[in-house]
Structures are given as C-alpha cells and as structure tokens.
C-alpha cells in the first residue's frame, strides 16, 4: 500500500509539473487550430488550463481514497443525498402526433426556460416543448414518423434518437447540426420491436452541457403483439418512466455546467427523477412496470428495493427479454435502460418502501396505497416472438468459441487524454468500416492505465446488438437482450454481435458525456 502510495504521489507531482510547464496549454492550442472545431472555445474555458488545475486538485484529494481510485473512476466521487420525499414524482406528458398522408407527425422544440427544481428558486434550464426534459414520443412499430423540429436555443444542437435504428442523416449525430432558429423535418420508419429508447442532443463538445441543463426525453416503441404479454401498460399508473439524473446545483441554485464540470465525469449530490428533486411516488398494490433510464452525464447507478425484495426484469436497452428474469438489483451506466416490474401486491413489507442505490441512499420513496379493489394480476408471459439468435444456448456456445473478430476497439485514457484505438474524434476520418446487413463480431477492450483506469459506457449508433461474452464468459442474464450501451471495466474484453441495416456514418463513443465531448468517439462507415 505504502509503495503504491509513493508511486502514485510521484506520478501526481509529475503530472502537476507537466501542467505547470505548459503542456496543457500546448495541448489546448493544438486542439484549437482545427478550424472546424467550433466547440473548442468552450472546451478550453471549461476544461482547459484552469479546469485542468482543478482536476488535479480533485485528484489529489482523491488520493486519500486509494482503494476507490484504483478500482473505480479517477478523482473523488460524490455521494448522493437521500430523497426527502417532499415532491410527488413528475410524470412526463405524452406528445400526441397528428396524422398527415400516412405519417405520424410530431412537433418538437428545444427551448430555454426557467424551472422551479428547488422550492422558491428559478433555475435556468433547457427542455423540449417545455422548460425541463421533454415529453414521451410513442412510436408504433411499422409507422412512418415525421418530427418537425425547431431549435429555439441560442446555440446549435442536434436531436439524436438513442437506440432507434434510423438512417445516419436523421440520426442526429454531431454532423447533423441544427442552427439557432432553424427548423427541420426528420422522417424515418420505425422498424423495431417494442422498447424504451430516448432522445438527446449530440453537438460535439456541447453534449454534456445541453443534456445537463435538461435536454432529454423518452421514446417508446409500441406494437400490438406486446399487448398479449400482460405487462402493466397504463401510462403513469402502473407503467411509469423513471429518468435518473444527478446534478450539482451552484450555491444560488443554478445548473451552471461549466462551474461544476469535471473532465472525467460531472457528478452531483442531488438526484432528479423525471426532473423532480426529493421525489416520492404513490403506487397501488399491484404489479408496476418501471422504465428506467440512467440519464446522468457520468454516474453509474445501482437500483434495488430497500427491503432486498426481488423484482422482474422484462427489458434491456433494445427491447423485451424473451424470458423475464428475477433479480434483486440492476446496475445502469449512463444511457443504459431497463424495464422492471415490481409486484407491490405481493411484497410482505410495504411500510417505508423505497428504491435505493447500492450504498442505501434513498432514491425514490414508494408509498403503497390501500387496495381499492382486489387486483388479480395476470402472470406475465414470456415472449417467444422476440426470440433473439443468442437466446438459443446452442448459438451462444458456438459464438463463445468463435475466433474471428471483425473489429477491435480499444478504449483508453482519462480526462483530455481519452481515445479510441489511440485517436480522438475527427469528423473527417473514418475509423471503422462495416458491411450493411452483415452480422459482425466487434471486440471491445478497456486498456487499463497506470492508475487502474475507468469504467466506460460504450455506445454504438445505428444498431441494437447482443453481448456474446465478457472476458470469454456469457454476460449476466440482465444483459442477455438487445443492447445499445454497455459498461466496460478496466481490463475487460467484451464481444458483441452487430448488424447494421442502413448505410452511412454512425458514431461509436463513450457515453460518459464528458469523455464523449473530449473526443472519446469514433466514426463507423457502413457500406
Ligand atoms: Cu446517447 Cu451518441 O448517444
Ligand atoms: Cu446514441
Ligand atoms: Cu469514458
């Protein structure tokens, strides 16, 4: 331990020297010379020289906690505080489409507003069709969708459909910038099976800030087949979205991103669920489906019941599982989703019930109401219609032994030095070439650094994939469904099975938003 400590100290002193002698400045200059990097100024101001020093400070204090440093993310972690349960949980509205010429037309605006997140304080926020977060867009499988989008922000943005399989031109990646005041129409077909997806901005260098200030919303895909599974589906009653986001308010109650930003992941002490601070939720003694989204910039969340009771997982990022799984907790890295069903009618202990994290912090107090009438819950049926290739053990076993891998992807680094296969994001470069309609194996490796390394949430656009293996073993049951984001720990190797449906350029990146903005992003050209 002592030896580790002194090696560590030496390293820190060296790093500090490097920063003081102006390496950091040179680095920033190099970044700024790229003329098309219009985001560079804010990165410089926010995460450059001054920030660099602050990060060093944070890391120095983080050294006090060597254990945490070696295993988890770099720098100090911030513990969440308990929800006081003083505000009823907000339920996002559902955006109704109009129907024109066989298209479902949705009108969406990104706007600046003020929101009373903390009692008596007006916080400047961003939102879609409102001042904070956005409505739920419910697409039907097989539908033609048109989204009429207007950017009412004072800065460029994009609308990215996270997890939705759409052509690159409407995917809302950094290349699809929409200027302030500009209106655009985004059309696509919805081809996927039922799932809980989301949308958020993706302008390179500005994603962290825009999401932090409130730009995020949910997309559901519905179809008629899923109605036969007996899943709870009364929106806002027994089918409830939970968007988890941690935030750090400034002393005057603002979400001033650049004041609190940390290049290795901006964490907060306050958890917002659906934009509600100190939320509480009333539920009936019946099965309730929660659609969980970790919408945090950087925080990984583990969610469980304070009683330790088990619940059912019914979906991963990309849709319903073939077979519901009984689990006691679920861990979601930034951008990951899961759907769970908690049967409040069957729980023995319904007093002071709550969703808590792995440290026991109260995230969402749950007040179970007295039964108004006896609800006889129908058992949830398994879901053979969504059977995936990998759910056959035979296929899974064959794939586990497969030796040929089409793409090798190495995630490495921290803060400003993040990279994929040794490079930072450059929109002019193609990093990977994939074949349209061909099923390929991609292998991801998280290369540890001298301080251990960090967990990175790996995200791929344009496809829903399946995890074949983690370090040569089948993934846990909670990951045996369609995924678009997964966490990879230092030293870990993860193989996934991917098929792209459309041609063009998609993004592959770390969904720790600060890493993404620092360039931990690559382009995939599908031909
Ligand atoms: Cu949710 Cu490329 O992002
Ligand atoms: Cu995405
Ligand atoms: Cu990362």
Any overview of this molecule?
- The chain has 527 residues and is an alpha+beta fold.
- Helix 1 (2-20) packs antiparallel against helix 4 (49-62) and helix 3 (40-47) crosses helix 4.
- The protein is built from 9 helices and 33 strands.
- The strands form 6 sheets. Strands 14-13-12-16-21-18-19 form a 7-stranded mixed β-sheet, with no helix packed on it. The chain has a 6-stranded mixed β-sheet with strand order 1-15-23-22-17-20, with no helix packed on it. Strands 2-6-11-10-8 form a 5-stranded mixed β-sheet, with no helix packed on it.
- The longest helix is centred in the N-terminal third of the chain and has 19 residues, at 2-20.
- The chain is globular, with a radius of gyration of 22 Å.
- The structure holds CU-O-CU linkage (C2O) and copper (II) ion (2 copies).
- The site of one copper (II) ion (CU) has 4 residues, from strand 8.
Question: In terms of topology, how is this protein built?
Answer:
Elements: H1 2-20, H2 23-32, H3 40-47, H4 49-62, H5 66-71, E1 87-88, E2 94-95, E3 98-100, E4 103-118, E5 121-128, E6 136-140, E7 144-151, E8 160-162, E9 183-189, E10 195-200, H6 207-212, E11 217-222, E12 239-247, H7 257-260, E13 270-273, E14 276-277, E15 279-283, E16 287-294, E17 301-305, E18 311-316, E19 319-327, E20 329-332, E21 337-343, E22 353-356, E23 362-368, H8 393-401, E24 407-412, E25 419-420, E26 432-434, E27 439-446, E28 456-460, E29 466-470, E30 485-488, E31 493-499, E32 504-510, H9 513-517, E33 521-526
Parallel strand pairs: 1-15, 2-6, 4-7, 6-11, 12-16, 15-23, 24-27, 26-33
Antiparallel strand pairs: 3-4, 4-5, 7-9, 8-10, 10-11, 12-13, 13-14, 16-21, 17-20, 17-22, 18-19, 18-21, 22-23, 24-25, 27-31, 28-30, 28-32, 29-31, 32-33
């Amino acid at each position: 331990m002592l030896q580790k400590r002194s090696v560590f100290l030496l390293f820190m002193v060296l790093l500090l020297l490097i920063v003081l002698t102006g390496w950091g400045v040179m680095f920033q200059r190099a970044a700024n010379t790229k003329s098309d990097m219009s985001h560079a100024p804010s990165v410089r101001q926010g995460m450059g020289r001054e920030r660099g020093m602050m990060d060093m400070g944070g890391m120095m204090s983080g050294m006090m906690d060597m254990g945490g440093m070696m295993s988890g993310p770099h720098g100090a972690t911030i513990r969440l505080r308990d929800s006081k349960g003083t505000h009823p949980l907000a339920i996002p509205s559902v955006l109704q489409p109009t129907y024109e010429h066989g298209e479902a037309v949705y009108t969406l605006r990104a706007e600046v507003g003020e929101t009373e997140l903390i009692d008596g304080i007006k916080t400047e926020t961003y939102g879609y069709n409102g001042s904070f977060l956005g409505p739920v867009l419910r697409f039907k499988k097989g539908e033609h969708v048109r989204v009429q989008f207007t950017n009412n922000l004072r800065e460029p943005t994009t609308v990215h459909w996270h997890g939705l399989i759409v052509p690159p031109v409407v995917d809302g990646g950094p290349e699809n910038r929409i200027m302030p005041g500009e209106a655009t129409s985004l059309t696509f077909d919805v081809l996927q099976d039922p799932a809980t997806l989301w949308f958020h901005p993706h302008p390179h260098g500005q994603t962290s800030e825009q999401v932090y200030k409130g730009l995020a919303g949910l997309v559901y895909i519905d179809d008629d087949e899923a109605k036969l599974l007996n899943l709870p589906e009364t929106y806002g009653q027994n089918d409830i979205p939970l968007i988890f986001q941690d935030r750090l308010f400034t002393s005057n109650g603002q979400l001033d991103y650049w004041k609190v930003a940390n290049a290795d992941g901006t964490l907060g002490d306050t958890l917002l669920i659906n934009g509600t601070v100190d939320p509480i939720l009333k539920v009936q003694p019946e099965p309730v489906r929660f659609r969980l989204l970790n919408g945090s910039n950087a925080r990984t969340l583990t969610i469980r019941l304070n009683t330790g009771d088990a619940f059912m997982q019914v979906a991963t990022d990309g849709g319903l599982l073939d077979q519901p799984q009984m689990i006691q907790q679920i861990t979601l890295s930034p951008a990951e989703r899961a759907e769970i069903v908690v049967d409040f009618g069957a729980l023995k202990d319904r007093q002071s019930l709550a969703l808590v994290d792995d440290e026991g912090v109260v995230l969402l107090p749950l007040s179970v109401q007295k039964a108004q009438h006896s609800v006889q819950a129908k058992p949830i049926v398994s879901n053979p219609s969504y059977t995936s290739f990998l759910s056959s053990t035979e296929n899974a076993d064959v794939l586990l032994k497969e030796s040929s891998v089409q793409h090798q992807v190495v995630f490495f680094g921290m803060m400003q030095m993040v990279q994929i296969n040794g490079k930072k994001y450059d929109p002019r470069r193609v990093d990977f070439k994939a074949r349209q309609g061909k099923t390929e194996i991609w292998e991801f490796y998280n290369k540890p650094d001298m301080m251990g390394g960090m967990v990175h949430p790996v995200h791929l656009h344009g496809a829903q994939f399946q995890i074949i293996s983690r370090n040569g073993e089948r993934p846990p049951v909670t990951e045996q469904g369609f995924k678009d984001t997964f966490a990879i720990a230092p030293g870990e190797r993860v193989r996934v099975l991917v098929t792209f449906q459309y041609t063009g350029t998609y993004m592959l990146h770390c969904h720790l938003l600060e890493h993404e903005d620092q360039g931990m992003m690559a382009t995939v050209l599908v031909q």
